[in-house]
Amino acid sequence: MRRARTIGRTSVETLERRALFAATPGGGGGLDPSFGNGGQLVVNVATQSDAAIDQVALDDGSSLLLGQHFPSPQSSVFSTVSRVTSAGALDPAFGVGGVAELSQPGGMSMVVTPAGQIVVAGATLGAGTPSADGPEDLLLQRLNADGSVDTTFGTGGITTTDTAHRQDAAVKLLQQADGKLVVVGYEQKAFLSRVQQSPHIIVTRYDADGHLDGTFGTNGVVVTDLPRFDIERAASAALQADGKIVVVGTAAEREAGFNVEASPARILVLRYNANGTLDNTFSKDGVAVSRRRGAASDVRVEANRILVSASRTVAGGRVASVLAFKLNGAVSAGFGANGVATADYRKLLGTAARNDTADRLAIDSTGKIVLAGRAGTDAIGVARLTAKGRADPSFGTRGKSVTVFTAVNNVTMAVQIDDKILTASGGTDITIARLLAVAGD
């Protein structure tokens, strides 16, 4: 059921027809009945389709959701930031009825400054539709804590960066302890011409007010083109305590002809020094390429290791996994099975197919590892692992929980200060769900 726009661009509807099944309701991994309607909130923007892009949990129990919305025709895509209260309702003190529309579309990642400002990174869109020309320049936007545009940032609240390539796009925004902003993404020559589509990793750094930092790379920009690969695409990044930057993604060699998919992708991890140079204390040249095939999606850095979530390609399909690396780039063999832990949702879904993704990775306050992504084709799967990469028996069913919907696309996830787990995914609307950390929470 769709309703007219009643809160700016957003209205809220009930969920009885949206959520079809949740594992272990009321227990650890089950829906939190104190949130929204039975553990969920549906944000209904009057568009053809919506996507959840990023989530941030705030210390007061509220959260922020970055979304993209596609009216019909899809050439008029726009982005919003919504603030959700700890009780699971849109916060009327933020934006218009809890929703702030960004002045530029294409938001992909966000951070919140110590002053409560919201910075969103993404890309400007080209003259054509999103499915044609695609993004062109790196984009930063900043909102005040109430959702209004912060005109003191960049130029009128916006900063764009053209790296002199046809297409630049941000995938992850990080904030250093000194307030500087690190943007990780990719650049490539063209979007439509598959012969020219050879993306390379790009890292840029800005001061706190949105100006390129000339002490980083070349005038604030670093482009990494690895000689042994034709394609390197970043997916996420994290900061080490010493200021080094860990980037994860995929690498592949191009096959002959027009095959844009190239050879099977391999999981890629890079580490940069604080000045933008590759760190040769990590895997000798700053680059670690896993023998595992698949696509890395997220990363977290701990005191003695790097954890990477990845959708791995295996016999019979695709599985959601976490890989552990030592800080020198070597595999951490004591984690999981030879450095890899896998979440298998097939028994919960009652299917033999292996078609899961690992979209988001987090560490809770107890050191447990939380993994979220698509389970099958129409469910969100959340797995919680011990620090050693074993399934946490206190969560869900043998460490896993699934919530089945009518449709699921990109999955976002954030862990709250009380270790409750927020997930979101889109379709016709965006559904935000909150899972309990422990039974009776």
From TrEMBL:
Superkingdom assignment: Bacteria
One Pfam short name: DUF5122
NCBIfam families reported in the protein's UniProt record: delta_60_rpt
Protein name per Swiss-Prot or TrEMBL: Delta-60 repeat domain-containing protein
